[in-house]
């Protein structure tokens, strides 16, 4: 009799083709064998819910989030890949296969049939999943009749099922993020090489550019509450690190950012970061932030300030070639913020862009009285008609470490007669444009001659001898200067 019914069923189903776009439904059987209006209505409205599992899924011993997860799993409502393909999610389609095996990723496969699930269920006493999923579900149903077993099994089953889901999400999202970050790094989208980064958030150094990240709730990111500084790396030595750290700490004090470590520890961290990078020529940049904590305006909710440092490789030296500058239309920073090296560089960036858009190298700021202030991220120097090296005063602008070192080295030119003197005072636009020479001074460019300001040529229109001499003096100082400005890196 059974074989006859099986053959009849096989013949009945022989012309049936499964439709993968529709969800399977389990139709409840009628115990009495009689059809009724109520039963027929239930057949029409049935959503495929495994009603036999409702009581134990909502067992109060199971944590609520586990109960909700199981309910969604049994209803086939998890965002497994087969469901996402059915929903037409273009990001997923047509890749509906499981991350751990070639099978289609469904809730049934992910939680019961997959090899990764087999390992976990094996630990939970089910030695193998060679039996079918209905057999396993039947086993679970039968276990409910054993009160002593029920309290253990329900919780264990729920915990393992959610663990499998979390493991799946970890494979999908974390691996994909890492892959995409690696692909971005390999695409050449970055024009510089970042060789190492230190972060006090994780308390260590990484050489993987994909791991060089800052928390989005760091107040330096969303409020600009941070300061920074830089130091050049030349021939395995850090140039003027002590001077830059002094300015760094002074900026932090003005920005009301407490120090995460004392000065000697910060210094040691910076040197170790360069050491880990193996970089012999480039730059070290470092930031001190109010720290992560929230998205409020005040940093009072930030528990700890954060220190970051990055080593950037720069194999080529700056060229002392002449350039054009323009008078910037971007409002200059107020002295209170201009004298501290803070991360609010939007005015600086716009000034640099404005200069480039007008065929120049950068823009030149004028202060509130109309005197020459500084460039976008560099100081300005002049050689007057009587051969005096002249720079604007540092009371309204950033006190450049490189500019100060240039002033010290320029004493040699006074001694040999190339310069008549050195001074720092207010410089008018007219005096600047009528100077014999003009130059930009900064750690990234060292000394760069300016041959044209707006529409006016400076001096003869060629790179001036003083600017070129100062460039070579500072370069030689970086290569063989005294220990006070050169710190060896213990690679």
From TrEMBL:
The keyword Cytoplasm does not apply. Keywords: Pyridoxal phosphate. One of its GO terms (molecular function) is catalytic activity. Pfam families: Aminotran_4, zf-RVT. Residues 36-121 form the Reverse transcriptase zinc-binding domain. The keyword Endoplasmic reticulum does not apply. GO terms for biological process: amino acid biosynthetic process; carboxylic acid biosynthetic process. Its cofactor is pyridoxal 5'-phosphate. Belongs to the class-IV pyridoxal-phosphate-dependent aminotransferase family. PANTHER family: AMINO-ACID AMINOTRANSFERASE (PTHR42743), D-AMINO-ACID TRANSAMINASE, CHLOROPLASTIC (PTHR42743:SF22). This is Reverse transcriptase zinc-binding domain-containing protein. It comes from Aegilops tauschii subsp. strangulata (Goatgrass).
């Amino acid at each position: 009799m059974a074989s006859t019914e099986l053959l009849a069923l096989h013949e009945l189903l022989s012309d049936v083709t499964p439709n993968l776009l529709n969800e399977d439904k389990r139709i409840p059987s009628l115990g009495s064998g009689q059809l009724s209006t109520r039963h027929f209505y239930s057949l029409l409205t049935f959503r495929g819910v495994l009603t036999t599992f409702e009581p134990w899924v909502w067992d109060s011993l199971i944590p609520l989030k586990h109960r909700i997860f199981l309910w969604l799993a049994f209803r086939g409502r998890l965002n497994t890949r087969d469901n996402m393909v059915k929903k037409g999610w273009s990001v997923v389609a047509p890749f509906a296969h499981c991350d751990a095996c070639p099978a289609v990723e469904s809730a049934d496969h992910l939680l019961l049939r997959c090899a990764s699930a087999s390992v976990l269920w094996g630990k939970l006493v089910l030695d193998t999943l060679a039996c079918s999923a209905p057999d396993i579900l039947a086993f679970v149903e039968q276990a409910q009749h054993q009160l002593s077993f029920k309290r253990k099994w329900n919780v264990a089953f729920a915990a393992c099922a959610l663990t499998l889901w979390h493991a799946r999400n970890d494979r999908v999202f974390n691996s994909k993020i890492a892959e995409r970050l690696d692909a971005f790094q390999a695409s050449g989208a970055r024009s510089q090489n970042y060789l190492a980064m230190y972060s006090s958030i994780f308390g260590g150094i990484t050489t993987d550019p994909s791991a060089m990240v800052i928390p989005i709730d760091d107040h330096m990111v969303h409020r600009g509450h941070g300061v920074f500084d830089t130091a050049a790396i030349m021939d395995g030595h850090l140039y003027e690190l002590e001077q830059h750290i002094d300015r760094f700490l002074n900026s932090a004090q003005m920005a009301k950012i407490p120090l995460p470590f004392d000065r000697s520890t910060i210094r040691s961290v910076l040197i170790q970061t360069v050491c880990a990078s193996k970089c012999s020529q480039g730059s070290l940049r470092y930031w001190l932030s109010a720290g992560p904590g929230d998205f409020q305006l005040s940093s009072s909710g930030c528990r700890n300030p954060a220190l970051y440092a990055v080593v950037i490789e720069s194999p080529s030296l700056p060229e002392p070639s002449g350039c054009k500058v323009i008078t910037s239309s971007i409002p200059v920073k107020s002295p209170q913020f201009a004298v501290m090296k803070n991360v609010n560089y939007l005015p600086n960036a716009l000034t640099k862009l404005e200069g480039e858009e007008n065929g120049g190298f950068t823009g030149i700021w004028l202060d509130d009285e109309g005197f020459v202030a500084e460039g976008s991220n560099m100081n300005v120097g002049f050689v007057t008609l009587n051969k005096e090296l002249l720079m604007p005063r540092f009371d309204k602008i950033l006190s450049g470490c490189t500019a100060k070192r240039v002033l010290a080295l320029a004493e040699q030119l006074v001694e040999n007669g190339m310069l008549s003197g050195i001074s720092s005072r207010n410089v008018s636009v007219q005096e600047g444009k009528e100077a014999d020479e003009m130059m930009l001074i900064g750690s990234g460019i060292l000394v760069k001659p300016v041959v044209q300001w707006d529409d006016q040529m400076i001096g003869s229109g060629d790179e001036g001898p003083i600017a070129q001499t100062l460039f070579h003096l500072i370069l030689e100082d970086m290569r063989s200067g005294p220990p006070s400005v050169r710190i060896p890196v213990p690679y």
